[in-house]
Amino acid sequence: MRLEGWQIIIVIVLAVLLFGAPKLPGLARSVGQSLRIFKSEVRQLKDENNGPAPQAAPGGPAPQPAPLSPGSPAGESAPGEHRHQEP
Fold first, then answer.
1. Domain range spanning residue 36?
2. Residue 87: per-residue pLDDT
3. Are 25 and 16 a contacting pair, CB within 8 Å?
4. Which letter does DSSP use for residue 22 in this model?
């Protein structure tokens, strides 16, 4: 469906009648800014999806968990560590 010349003129006349002539430049400016922001966000999302796969952090293997202190019972979990016990 293509817009022809007479259809565009009708749309412009309706816009002038609905919004008034003084408000149209501000409305057009606002729509332009919104489209610019939308396009930049879409471009940014495409760049993130097409970027290289994330790799492991440089510097070696992941840090090992801290061993339990000798005074703590074996069934007790270290601070910040949650264990699930089965009934």
1. 24-49
2. 60
3. no
4. G
The amino acid sitting at 71 is: G
What's the total number of domains in the chain? 1
Residue 57 forms part of a structural domain: no
In contact, 81 and 68? CB cutoff 8 Å: no
DSSP assigned state of 23: G
For residue 1, what are its two tokens?
Answer: 């469906």
Question: How many CA atoms lie within 13 Å of 14's alpha carbon, on the beta-carbon side?
Answer: 6
CA atoms within 13 A on the CB side of 80: 4
- For the chain of 87 residues, list the mean pLDDT of each consecutive stretch of 10: 85 86 87 95 91 60 62 55 57
